[in-house]
Each structure stands twice: as C-alpha cells, then as structure tokens.
Design brief:
With about 230 residues, the protein is mainly α. Helix content is about 65%, strand content about 5%. The chain is extended, with a radius of gyration of 28 Å.
Length: about 230
C-alpha cells in the first residue's frame, strides 16, 4: 500500500491490510446477501413441486439449444409428473403449470391469480415495449375494455368467410410472386407477408376494419415484380 497514504492516515501496514480485508469481505458479503434476496425462491411458493435450476432458464442465451430441446431434456419429465414447476423467468421466480385442473382453477379465481404481462413484470425490457398492455395479459377494467371491443367480432352469428377467402388467395399469390422473383435457388422471407395477412384478415373479419395492409403489400410486390421484369 502507498507509504504516503499510510503516513497521512496513521495506519500501520498491518492495520491497512486488515482494513482492506474487512472492506473487501464486507462488499462480498453484501453482494452475496443481495444476490440471495434476488434469486431465492419466495417462501409462499408451493413446497411440493420441484424448482428448475436458474442456469437452465439462461441456457438459451449462451448455447445453441432451442427452447424445445431444453423443454424435452429438462422440463418435460417434472411437468408430466408434478403438473407444475418453479422456474426463473423475466428476472423473478414463476410457477409454470401444464396440468389442466391447475390451469382451470387459476382461470376461475381471477381475484387470486391476477394476470401481469411483461409491461408489469419487466417494464424495462424490449418485450414490454413491443407488446405493451393487451387483451392477453391485462386484468380487471383494462381486460373488460379490450374484450368489449373484441367480443362482438368474435361472437358474430352471421360470420362472412368471403374476406378471409379473398385475402388468402391474395396471400398465396404474393408468396408465388415473391418466390418467382428470387428464383428456385433462394428462399423467401415470409414473416412480413404472414404478419400483414393476419392483420388484414383479423381486422376485416373481427373488427369490421379494413387496414388495407394486404393491398399495400400487394402493390409493393407488384412494383417489385415490375422492377425485376424491367431489369
């Protein structure tokens, strides 16, 4: 340790070394306590179901294993045996359930099992910004508001399938056009087309709103096709 520092503080080398050890130990102890408080399983969680090790929840980040492989290898057996497991997700411990009677009880007791989406559990995440508050993860008055908008379209008695049929034909036509444009040796990125097709079909069939996304996509594909033909 610096001799001038020892002189100014009046500490001997032994006292300084002791001070460093105590400080370092205190920091490490405090860090360990804070880490334990974060990752410990809450005391009110069921004791009769197993807990999935935290590293399995993070495995998808640092390995090339897919979620289906992780599920089949480590989650399927305990879930089939116990019907539920404790699992680390979104920075906290959760209970993952697959047994039908557990799910039925949870859905019936909304006052106990309130839904909380990413916008509440991990509001700082990209997922929270992407999905926001919606009908799937909302609760109470928000959920009633969303369902009041969706139910009339979902519960139509005279459902007209013609809009979906027309958009499906256009969707197939777009896929064929895109594939012809790149040739047989290459593939086509279908996600943007599928997303717009879904928005168009859902909007007109359930909300009675034509978002015109399929028409815009069709016009873009036709323009791309003309550019390819002229080139």
């Amino acid at each position: 340790m610096d001799r001038q520092f020892l002189t100014r503080t009046g500490l001997s080398s032994y006292d300084a070394a002791t001070w460093v050890i105590i400080t370092t130990g205190s920091v490490l102890l405090l860090s360990a306590v804070l880490l334990y408080r974060v990752i410990r399983i809450p005391s009110n969680f069921p004791k009769n179901i197993p807990a999935v090790p935290i590293y399995l929840s993070l495995m998808g980040l640092w390995s090339d294993m897919g979620q289906d492989e992780i599920y089949d290898r480590w989650l399927r057996e305990p879930l089939e045996k116990y019907g539920a497991v404790k699992i680390w997700f979104a920075g906290r411990w959760n209970i993952l359930m697959t047994r039908p009677e557990y799910l039925s009880d949870m859905l019936k007791r909304e006052d106990v099992f309130a839904k909380a989406g990413s916008q509440k559990k991990i509001p700082w995440s990209v997922m929270a910004s992407l999905v926001g508050d919606n009908i799937i993860n909302s609760h109470g008055e928000d959920w009633k508001l969303y369902t009041s908008v969706m139910k009339p379209g979902m519960q139509k008695t005279n459902f007209d399938s013609q809009p979906i049929l027309e958009k499906t034909r256009r969707f197939i036509d777009l896929l064929l056009r895109e594939q012809n444009a790149v040739g047989r040796s290459s593939g086509v990125l279908v996600n943007p087309i599928i997303q717009r097709f879904t928005i168009a079909a859902m909007g007109e069939s359930f909300l009675d709103i034509d978002f015109e996304v399929s028409k815009l996509l069709y016009q873009k594909a036709a323009a791309d096709q003309r550019a390819t033909d002229s080139g």
